[in-house]
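Q: For a teaching handout, I want to show students what a protein-ligand complex looks like in token form. Below are the inputs, and the small molecule is pyridoxal-5'-phosphate. Please produce the holo structure.
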Amino acid sequence: MQNTVENMSKALKDNFEAVQEQIKCAEEEAGREEGAAQLIAVSKTYDAISIEPVIEAGQRIFGENRVQEAQGKWPELREKYSNIELHLIGPLQSNKSADAVALFDVIHTVDREKIAKTLSQEMEKQGRHLPCFVQVNTGEELQKAGIAPSDAVVFVKKCQTEYGLNIVGLMCIPPVDENPGPHFALLRDLAKQLELEQLSQGMSGDYKTAILMGATHVRVGSAIFGARD
Ligand SMILES: *Cc1c(COP(=O)(O)O)cnc(C)c1O
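A: Here is the structure, written as tokens, with pyridoxal-5'-phosphate included.
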């Protein structure tokens, strides 16, 4: 048993270090500074036994896609390790806004007016003014969350002026069956138009491309933790 746990920890640490190395290479290839693209280790579906080796290897920024799942594991991990930064990367339901604002440090998925409104109210109430990304549905997929590209500019401005949200950037998840490059380029152009500095784009399969196209945050899960069920 002990041996199995040790082997697993070693594999996780190796995966994590390989991803860090790839990020560094991509930054270099893009002519960007080292550290220009932050790694968000996406720990959804994995529990403490898998997460702790990655924290111990030095990672502090983690992403989760469900509020309730994150509430079940992160408070305890935060007591044990300092400086953990938690990013919500999954769709938010308005009745979970209070919990999300209390638990997370950054929200990547502001995708409709109702959420902008409830987040704004909760942030005011809790005195926690979190950095937020607006999710853009770059592939205009029906089943996917996010604002249509043609509505993004108006929506971001509304989040800023009407709801007082601190919008730091844009986020996208390109369609699985398409070349992600044009989607990352579209997101980058929209962000530039809005004078937003940050781009949350790139997952295990395409984070190198995303960094070449300006990602400031890559969200990498399976390349570190392994395939999910
Ligand atoms: C799960 C998830 C990721 C990580 O995906 P991998 O392919 O495992 O790296 C990134 N972003 C979002 C929004 C996710 O839900």
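A: Two things your students might notice: The chain has nine helices and eight strands. Residues 108 and 133 are 4 Å apart (CA to CA).
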